[in-house]
Amino acid sequence: MTAPLINDSFLRACLRQPTPHTPVWLMRQAGRYLPEYRATREKAGNSFMGLATNVQYATEVTLQPLDRFPLDAAILFSDILTVPDAMGLGLSFGAGEGPRFAHPVRDEAAVGALRVPDMQRLRYVFDAVASIRRALLTRDAQGREAGRVPLIGFAGSPWTLACYMVEGGSSSDYRLVKTMLYARPDLMHRILQVNADAVSVYLNTQIESGAQAVMIFDSWGGVLADGAFQRFSLDYTRRVVAGLKREKEGRRIPVIVFTKGGGLWLEAIAGCGADVVGVDWTVDLAQARARVGQRVALQGNLDPMVLFAPPEVVAREAQAVLDRFGPPQRGDGGWEGHVFNLGHGINQHTPPEHVSALVEAVHAHSRVLRQQRASES
Questions:
Q1: What are phi and psi of 270, to 5 degrees?
Q2: What is the mean pLDDT of the chain?
Q3: Domain-by-domain residue ranges, the chain?
């Protein structure tokens, strides 16, 4: 798995190195908005876990968006809840429903029983990572070159996993998990410690299996109060990052941290040890760039709903995001890197042709910005 990458712009941007264009990938880029994904899921019995636990299918759906769009990175097709499922909580996805756990963690006995799971229970994830990486290293049937883009692995943050584990599924008010946080912080800290250690091992095993970058999704960090966010989310994300393997195959493994609703704490998140901080669409990229300086690269941050506008509007809004960040430039601490992405996951009803317009606009306009900067200097 050491073949050179033809397009390493994503990795370079993550590490604040110069790139010929701003790289772009999309959260949930392998998913229900693609008809080919829906066809593969049907083969898997319309079961999400049937899809995610089948190495062939997981590889197939991970590569599908790359076959359609000139994206600059692949991301493993999986789910953030595989880790608590491996702890024995009984994950399921009902038809038309979100994830549910058969055994939520709500009392002292359940919390005391939590352990970092045996990673063999997650072998299907690591086998999928290895399979996808091999596929990316092989010239495909359409003649695409080997080593076309890097592969991103991922996990949920300790706090986000705890939300699902205590609530038993999705929540509109986080009443149960916040009640535990305030009434029994000792139990919450115990859950978060186990989760952090489990996520570190999980991501390291993905790296060993072939992932070339990893992302931590702190999807629900933004529901916390100031102060609680630092103690119950960021501290444990920092613990995960500190435990990660940061180099393999002679290259640094970039780490991305994304806290939805975390714009208030941008400087603190930038200090957690990650290479890249993802921001949602509520954050002004020019201000974010000024706030983090050359400590980290930034990822984001188009509103996913923009993709329902006509393609020419999609292109214009993408250009506006790039203009707000501005052309990368070198400073005392390195280049100011930018990875283009949405401010959250792509909506399942998104027209695929609008994604084409987005990717084309990002690549084209970011090259124009670089040319302008070069001519000015």
A1: -65, -20
A2: 94
A3: 9-376
**What residues are annotated to the active site?**
28, 32, 41, 79, 164
Q: What is the pLDDT of residues 11-30, one digit of tens each?
A: 999 999 999 999 999 999 99
Considering the segment(s) 9-376 as one domain, its CATH architecture is Alpha-Beta Barrel (3.20)
Report if pTM > 0.90. yes
